[in-house]
Each structure stands twice: as structure tokens, then as C-alpha cells.
Amino acid sequence: MTTFLIILACIITIVLLISWAKFNPFLAFLIVSLITGWFLGIPLTKLSASVQKGIGDTLGSLVVIIGLGAMLGKLVAESGAAQKITRVLMRTFGEKHLQWALMATGFVVGIPLYYNVGFVLMVPLIFSVVYQYKLPAVYIGLPMLAALSVTHGFLPPHPSPTTLVLQLKADMGLTLLYGLLLAIPAIIVAGPLFSKTLKHIRSTPLQAFQPKTVPDNQLPSAANSFLTALLPVILLTITTIIPFVTTLSGVSLELHQFISDANIVMLISLLIATFTLGIFTGRSIKAVMDIYGEAIKDIALILLIVAGAGILKQVFIDSGVSETIAESIKGWQIHPLVLGWVIAGVIRVCVGSATVAGLTAAGIIGPVMPMMQVNPNLMVLSIGAGSLLLSHVNDSGFWMYKEYFNLSIRDTIKSWTVMETIVSVMGLIGVLIMDIFI
Question: A GO molecular-function term, please (predicted)?
Fold first, then answer.
């Protein structure tokens, strides 16, 4: 009980420091994380190491992707490619159905793309629609982000569900098939239906992604705009499919592993965009690099906030909070699928990382799976759904959404946190329904 109280006090303090005392979010995270770590029993001599590891592990996997993605997004906006894409989408689907078009795009993009890559890649597209057609940013953008979130938590080849499949001895193909069946209703409810209640939320997205109005005769072609903006998706999809259609070994295997890395994909995409949307449209290399420089300035604070969330996550991990909480509810007499969802959900709320929550829950459920009469594919999905529950201030995704959309913490909770929770609950409901028939 003491551990729960410490975590609750930690979360409340962070919220109050940022929203009431107007602290810089990074400073709030750093100060509260140090105090919380000490209260949770981490020796003072090791707290600094937790801070460094938290920043390193979080930014190590994000800083290149976020940085290159911001540069690509800025160029897509400045070149008029976003304007061209928006016009094509609006003409094809119409303004009434634009939400559904963006949601479908997010789902397709989210299957091969890691969440953070997909988020950074697709947010400029959302903003271009917002600025050009004066539509509410949260209302328009949330369905696409719901789709990205579902693919991240439910579907292989994303890291967490893929690892869960291996740990719980499930079948990758069946898990993907069941996951797709669960994903569609979850996305619809958490996306277009829920976002109808959010039209009143005022949001002024980052000016970095506000596209300048480019004369029609200077716009890049539709093919150039779509192919360049979606090139990371195309490259990652191709590199994901290759191992299934041919056998790789030796140099070809090493080359494939190198090129398929998300950081390398983003770098290749940006280099190509430098020519297709930069040099070939009449801009000098210096002008393109100036655009990239401005993009980095715009996301510097976001990187610090994400780093702060990483510090808090690492403090919880190093203090053994996840294991303590999981063990305390392990003996609950409830349906195995609900138990897996609850364990993952509680860890998610306390630790912040969906991946950590999923893998920790699997480590607890895995050893007792043989004693449970439950389909392992459904257990993977149940744990995956639980790992998305109630995203809040200790989740880097919460802060990326808040800062990109320039929202208050209150409005972030009302939109992002509730959306993630709807996805999680819909996933559990779907799993329990499927369990009746499978």
C-alpha cells in the first residue's frame, strides 16, 4: 500500500508543479523523479545512474527518429507537398469523411511503422488539414492517433506484441488475424465516435508544421508529394516483407538489417526528400538546411519533456515497482484474460511504458499459462490491450501529443488519456467475446 501511495503522490505532484506552479515539465520530472526514487528505496548513490539511463534509453531510441521526422515534416510543409496532399484527400473523400480517411491512413501506416515514427510522420499531415480548412485539431487528429496506438499495442511486428507472442508461445499469424479483428471496432469507437465529443477543445498546433500557402503553379506534383511524405512507410513495408519472400544470409542479411532500422529508413527518406522537395523544386541546399535547422529548434523542448518521462519510468523500474505491484495482484481469482489485462494495465499506469507493462505482465503470466485454460493468442491481445490503459504524465506519448498539439494537461487527459483507455477497454471486451467462440 505504501508503494501505491508514493506513486500516487508522485503523479499528483508532477501535475501540480506543471499545471499550477507553472514549472518547466523537464524540471518537474527531474525533481519529482529524484525524490520519488529516494522514497522508493533507490540509494542516493544510484539515483544519478537512474536519471542517466532513463534519459539515454528513452532518447536513444527517439531522438534520431523525432529529429529526422521533424525535418521531413517541416520540408513537406514548406515545399507545399502537405498542401497538395491535403487537396487530394479532401477532393477524394470530402470534408465530411476526412476523419475516416486519416484514420484508415493511420491504420495502414501503423502496421509496419513503430508508433513514434508513425506519430512524427503523420502529425504534419493532420496539421496541414487543420490549418488549411480551419478544423479542430483534436477532432481531426485523434482518429489517426487511435489507429496508430492500436497497431502499436495489438499487432505484430511491433516490438511488444511480437515479444509477447514468443513468450506466451502463441502463433504470430493467428495473433495478427485476431488483432486485426479487434482493432477495427476499437479504432472506430476511440477515433471518429469519441472525437465527436471533443470539438470544443481549443488547440493551436506547433507553428513548425503550419504550411505556407504556395501558389498552385509552384506546388509539387501529387505523386511527388505522396511518395516523398510516405517514403518511410514504403521503405519499412518493403524491408518488413522481404524476409517472408526470400531467404537472406551473409552480406545480404546484414545489409537488410541495417537498411530496415527505423533510424536509417528516416535518414534515407530525408536525403531523398532533400532533392525531390528541395533541390528539384528550385531551393538551394542552404535553404533546405535552414528549414531543417528551424525544425530542430521547434522540437527541442519536446525532446526534453520526453526525456523527463523517461527518467520517471526508469526510477519506477529500478525501484522494482512493477514487480511489486504485479506480485500483489497475481493471486486474484478472476478470468485469466481479465487478469492479464489488469496486470498489464496497473503496471502501465504506474510505469508509463506500454512495452514495459506488456513484457512485465507476460513474465508473470507466462509461467502459469500451462495451468490456465486460455488461448495464448487471445492472452497476447489481452495483455497488449491492458498495456495501453490510462496513459498519463509518466508516458512519453502523452507528452508528445500534448506538446505537438499545444494542449493543457487537462485537455490532454480529456482527449488522449480517455482515447487510450477506450482502446484498452474495447480490446478487452473484444478478447472476451472472441474467447466464447474460439
Answer: gluconate transmembrane transporter activity
56 three-state secondary structure: helix
- The C-alpha angle 23, 124, 206, rounded to 5 degrees, equals 30
Half-sphere exposure at residue 213, Cβ-oriented, CA atoms within 13 angstroms = 3
DSSP string for residues in 368-422: GGGGS-S-HHHHHHHHHHHTTTT--TT-HHHHHHHHHHT--HHHHIIIIIHHHHH
C-alpha cell at 314: 526508469
Give the domain ranges of the chain. Answer: 2-203+219-437
Give the CA dihedral 89, 90, 92, 94, nearest 10 degrees.
140
Let me know: does 418 contact 217? Beta carbons within 8 Å. no
The residue ranking higher by pLDDT, 122 or 137, is 137
Measure CA 35 to chain center: 28
Sole residue written with cell 531467404: 247
Q: What is the pLDDT of residues 24-47, one digit of tens each?
A: 888 888 998 899 899 988 999 999
User: Sorting pLDDT into bands at 50, 70 and 90, what band is 431?
Assistant: very high
Of 348, 343, 350, 351, nearest to 313 (Cα)? 351
Q: Which three cell numbers stand for residue 343?
A: 496486470
User: Do the beta carbons of residue 171 and residue 165 sit within 8 Å?
Assistant: yes
* DSSP string for residues in 342-365: HHHHHHHHHH--HHHHHHHHHHHH
Q: What are phi and psi of 127, to 5 degrees?
A: -65, -35
Chain Cα centroid distance, residue 39:
30
Rounded Cα–Cα distance for residues 429 and 438 (Å): 14
What is the per-residue DSSP string for 286-315? Answer: HHHHHHHHHHHHHHHHHHHHHHHHHHHHHH
The grid coordinates listed for 164 are 509477447
| Cα–Cα distance measured from residue 42 to residue 352, given in angstroms and rounded to the nearest whole number | 19
Residue given cell 502463441 in the structure block:
170
Count the neighbouring beta carbons within 10 Å of the beta carbon of residue 8: 11
